[in-house]
Design brief:
Length: 480
């Protein structure tokens, strides 16, 4: 076994002895990680979580409902279509609630199962896994990639690098374009890309997300988890002694040391760890899990599969590295009476209940009234007083509706026009309405009024307040 094989999965760098001690850099140079591929139970689980996510991301824009894209964030029209629902800017509260529910659900799951989000479903993990696979296809297994890295430039090296970066760029471009299709419409996007007439904004964001994907999954990889992701920093606050984490069992593993296959560790005075470093060589963040719980660990369990494969070869029991808890490792039992877990769980249940109630009782109708500020009031030919309003009815439903507008707060008002208003699905209808009142019946100069719009079937309604201005009430002048 060479020194490199026996080392962590990085190319050895310069040691402190080699460095002029008077010249230390404040920034450590990143050492490229060359992971070794491995198969095993948890790798298969990652396939079952990764593929549905990838397929969901790439195929969802192609799903159509009632002739339009099922999920479409139409920024130009300021409408978010999510399956059978359409959200307007007025519904921003729902987005805020949805994000809060997602955050607290993540807190709950992290307290219960540790960083399963990071290890199995985080886009950075899933996309990095795809890029690593492409790297392996183009440049070979770990030792071949290390040799290629050290080799001088040659035609073969150029070809392999070109193939790898071509695959990365292709997948990154597909990712970027798909992301933009959620806003642009996938069919329009394909047509416009095909005819080289993609709108400037769409082109900018497609290029931006392509480069971001290429850089994050191809070059930065674990650096995103270690230095850029805020979640990695604060999630240790969610863990407790009963949280499931990937751990090495030092009681069983130590003293570590090499030995022949099938050798009995007890007779050698050793533990079960044969110090093969396979768990380190497969780790995508380049850490040694035997050093204990570290914030760099994304709980991907690849080291479990690696170690179990070694244990099988040695005819030892699996589980030297396993999903376990701090309490279990210390020989204590597990409890469900955990304040954080209960707190997050209750918060999630409460928020989902309130969110569902708000969503199901949401009225897909909005009424906006603006009084004509250009005039106080106008006296028309037959002695009546006129105020003019701009009425805006927003039909947020996916069906056309007919509405009736009504007014309260004034004595015998007359609206002109007083017709039923038809608003097509997802459209805003604006019209100017004159409200005429007999000044003899007005009791105030400035009267508070309320408009109410109601669907034909009286299922939904919306109200909006405004003011009606008139002359000094006639009645008070008569009293004088
Ligand atoms: S230590 Fe194990 S679980 Fe943690 S990141 Fe490395 S391989 Fe994944
Ligand atoms: S893979 Fe298992 S046996 Fe090998 S070094 Fe890691 S913990 Fe020890």
């Amino acid at each position: 076994m060479t020194a490199l094989d026996n080392s962590p999965n990085k190319i050895p760098s310069v040691t402190l002895d080699d460095v002029d001690s008077s010249v230390y850099s404040l920034y450590e140079k990143r050492e490229k990680i060359f992971t070794r591929s491995i198969e095993g139970f948890f790798q298969n689980v990652r396939l079952f979580t990764g593929w549905p996510l990838l397929l969901g991301y790439f195929l969802t824009p192609w799903i159509m409902i009632d002739g339009r894209q099922a999920i479409l964030f139409d920024l130009a029209a300021r409408k978010f279509h999510i399956f059978w629902l359409t959200f307007w800017p007025q519904d921003f509260g729902f987005l805020a609630w949805a994000l809060m529910i997602a955050a607290f659900t993540l807190f709950f799951i992290t307290t219960l199962l540790g960083r399963v989000w990071c290890g199995y479903t985080c886009p950075q993990t899933v996309w990095t896994a795809i890029f690593m696979w492409a790297e392996q296809v183009a440049e070979g297994e770990r030792h071949q990639r290390i040799n290629l890295q050290k080799a001088p430039w040659s035609l073969e090296k150029v070809f392999k690098r070109f193939t790898k970066h071509g695959m990365w760029m292709g997948f990154a471009a597909l990712t970027g374009l798909t992301f933009v299709s959620y806003f642009y419409g996938v069919r329009a996007l394909v047509t416009d890309v095909w005819h080289f007439k993609l709108a400037d904004t769409a082109l900018f964001w497609s290029v931006f997300f392509t480069i971001a994907t290429y850089a994050n999954a191809g070059w930065l990889r674990e650096q995103v988890c270690l230095h850029m992701c805020p979640y990695a920093r604060f999630q240790s606050a969610m863990l407790d002694e009963d949280t499931l984490v990937v751990s090495y069992d030092p009681q069983r593993g130590e003293l570590r040391g090499p030995r022949k296959r099938n050798a009995d560790p007890d007779t050698l005075g050793l533990g079960a760890c044969i110090d093969c470093f396979l768990c380190v060589q497969v780790c995508p963040t380049g850490i040694d899990i035997r050093d204990g719980l570290q914030y760099e660990c994304i709980n991907c369990a690849i080291c479990i599969d690696a170690c179990d494969s070694i244990m099988a070869k040695m005819n030892y029991a699996p589980g030297l590295i396993s999903y376990t808890t701090e309490n279990k490792l210390a020989g204590r039992g597990r409890t469900w009476k955990r304040p954080k877990l209960v707190g997050y769980g209750l918060a999630v249940i409460l928020m989902i209940t309130l969110f569902s109630y708000s969503l199901f009782t949401r009225m897909p109708l909005e009424l906006d009234i603006m009084r004509n500020r250009g005039e106080l009031y106008h006296e028309v030919a037959d002695g009546l007083i006129r105020n003019t309003y701009l009425v805006k009815i927003i039909n947020m439903d996916r069906k056309t509706h007919t509405y009736q507008l009504a007014l309260s707060g004034l004595p015998a008002p007359r609206m002109v026009p007083d017709a039923r208003i038809v608003a097509p699905a997802g459209e805003v209808v604006e019209l100017s309405i004159d409200v005429l009142v007999d000044p003899d019946k007005l009791i105030e100069v400035n009267t508070e009024i309320e408009f109410r719009v109601e669907t034909d079937d009286s299922l939904w309604y919306a109200t909006s307040e405004s003011r009606y201005l008139g002359p000094e009430p006639i009645r008070s002048q008569n009293n004088d």
